[in-house]
Amino acid sequence: MDLRLAGHGALVTGSSSGIGTTIAETLADEGCDVLVHGRDAGAAAAVAERVAARGVRAEVVLGDLTEPGVAEQVALTARDFGAHILVNNAGPFAEHDWDSAQPSDWRAAFEGNVLPTVRVSQTLLPSLRANGWGRVITIGSRAVRTPLPNMVAYSAAKAAVVNMTTSLARHLAGTGVTANCVSPGVIVSPSMFRILQGQTDEQGQADEQGRADGANGGGDTTGHRDGPDEADIVAEYAPNPTGRLGRPEDIASAVAYLASPRADYVNGIELRVDGGITGTP
Ligand SMILES: NC(=O)c1ccc[n+]([C@@H]2O[C@H](COP(=O)([O-])OP(=O)(O)OC[C@H]3O[C@@H](n4cnc5c(N)ncnc54)[C@H](OP(=O)(O)O)[C@@H]3O)[C@@H](O)[C@H]2O)c1
């Protein structure tokens, strides 16, 4: 199926690594120009090079979205790039439970996940409206439906992101701009890999290096996994009826569909791409 994305432009925040990289590459595979974003200049440039190799326009914008004024600047660069698809992907996670989470941890969770989404979206909205067509796709989490006791602040911040998606979709009624959310399950990105590795270390599980090798499929930064340890990790940390961990491609495919004109009639949803880990409401 042709997603009819050719000729469109997209900003993918946090696309210098992890799931965001795969989203950028997948959109490029569909003919979409991509503005790659991150803080690490070298990593972002390398991703942009791979995106451009697919025959589309690729540029880089750098900046820490938690620093004052940066999110707005990134959005203005996206406007000038011609991006009418915004993927709010950057969203750091950190582990804190109710006993350990300090006010600064709660603040960091909201400053990393909620405020950049607000600032980039708000700044880009006028040009999306003027274009008469646009997409705001924000990455949520399985933690929205199943809040994690070891990631309380992150879970709450991601719940806010879904809530914001609904109000934004309603706000944009009749403009041709839709707002949707994709909520990943446990996806083996470098960040999630570090967390999984920490959990196995803590509980003294099996051979640490074996897990590491299994969990990143031999060093692929996008985190493909096919080692024999995957079933153990799924059973212990991410039980889901599909029986495997998620891959960045699982999320990128969902984002590409929602970004496409094929999804014109899909608006205000949270699409759970989690292998069924959150169950059926
Ligand atoms: N992995 C999972 O299992 C999982 C599950 C549920 C939801 N999610 C969500 O999916 C999204 C992507 O996750 P991921 O696992 O790919 O995360 P990740 O590996 O931590 O993503 C890192 C990317 O985000 C950028 N980034 C982080 N903080 C930033 C900041 N303050 N300003 C600018 N850029 C920043 C990084 O830029 P630099 O490296 O250049 O600094 C990098 O490009 C996030 O919203 C995450 O919460 C992930």
From TrEMBL:
Domain of life, per lineage: Bacteria
The name this protein goes by in its record: Short-chain dehydrogenase
Chain residue ranges for the region called Disordered: 200-230
GO biological process: one example: monocarboxylic acid metabolic process
Pfam families cross-referenced by the UniProt entry: adh_short, adh_short_C2
Annotated InterPro entries: NAD(P)-bd_dom_sf, Sc_DH/Rdtase_CS, SDR, SDR_fam
Record-level Gene Ontology MF annotations: oxidoreductase activity
Keyword Oxidoreductase on entry: yes
Keyword tags: Oxidoreductase
Family: Belongs to the short-chain dehydrogenases/reductases (SDR) family.
Keyword Oxidoreductase listed: yes
Lineage of the organism: Bacteria, Bacillati, Actinomycetota, Actinomycetes, Kitasatosporales
